[in-house]
Amino acid sequence: MKKKRITLVDLAKELELAASTISRALDNHPGISIETKEKVLKKAEELGFTRNSIASSFKKNKTLTIGVIVPRIDIHFHSLVISGIEEFAYKAGYNVTIFQSRDSLEREKEITKILQNKMSEGVIICLGTETNSYEHFEKLNRMKVPLVFYDRVPTGMEANKIVINDFESAFKATEHLIEIGCKRISHIGGNQSTGIFKARFEGYKAALTKHDFPIDESLIYFTKDLSYEEGALFAEKLVDLVPRPDGVFCSNDYTAVSAIQVFQKKLVKIPEEVAIVGFSNYPISKIIEPHLTTVNDRAFEMGLAAAKLLIGQIEEEEEIIQTEIITIKTELLIRESSSR
């Protein structure tokens, strides 16, 4: 036989107190005596009573839940961001519900409909690669739902944003290759319809221009998803070039790792003949031999900052709240793949 859940009414009958008194005692209301609070807590523990958090949320007109929309949970960067979000949200008393858009605009739109119905207190979003319009997020804005975008953020829409300086980070990565003596530097880039990958490409070009290097289109390839397979495909093309590039800057670590393996199979020495730099500091960057030089994009800190900004705005009582753009500082981690 299924055990009956102990309710607030059951607790009130046991203690011969009003249910409203029980509720206020459990909420540590200052109008309830310490003696009564202790009596209620003791009886609640004895009977195994727990508050119905959903009912309590509706009563207070707050769900204490925030939604998070990520393109792909299996990408290490987003896993770290989620960890940062949950770390801050848990300490602030909020629950986190995670949705995966899989880079689909239609799926992203459906998720925002779910979040409207579930009455999330606020939403943290990283845009999918297909996202080229923001009406679904504008609707949440009109409903006064606080929003924070991270990493891939909307252009032309006033919103809270947590970003890194992709241009500057790519500039430093490319300039590092120049400083160690590379003369022909290739770039394996991400989808140029996505702002962060376009900024990384611009940073690469700016570093070459600063040092009077030509922009050689034969050394530049753009991927659709920055997958390991795409990195290997373009590295195969680079390794057969005459003259071959002596430096490669990749827009993520997956393509950089595949490039290392392709060059090694062709018996090209790394970093002596080709130095390689990635982006994001995935765990694989410290597993591959030689260890990969990469940009640490501080994903966990990005998650912490996003949750702090969102929850701060949820709890702000002012009707008009100023939007913020926060830039997380990155770091170039120099390892064996570019240590000459």
Keywords:
6-stranded parallel sheet, alpha/beta, Rossmann fold, 434 Repressor (Amino-terminal Domain), elongated, 340 residues, 4-stranded parallel sheet, 12 helices, 3 domains, 12 strands, Lambda_DNA-bd_dom_sf
Sum up the overall morphology in one term: elongated
| Number of domains as seen in the coordinates | 3
CATH topology of the largest domain: Rossmann fold
The poorly predicted ranges are none
Distance between the amino and carboxyl termini: 72 Å
CATH class of the largest domain: Alpha Beta
Strand content: 5-15%
Task: Find the count of extended strands (DSSP E, 2+ residues).
Answer: 12
What do the pLDDT scores average to?
91
Q: Report helical residue fraction.
A: 40-55%
Number of H/I helices: 12
Q: Give me the side-by-side strand order of the main sheet.
A: 2-1-3-4-5-11
> Biggest sheet, open or closed, and with what strands and sense?
6 strands, parallel
CATH architecture of the largest domain: 3-Layer(aba) Sandwich
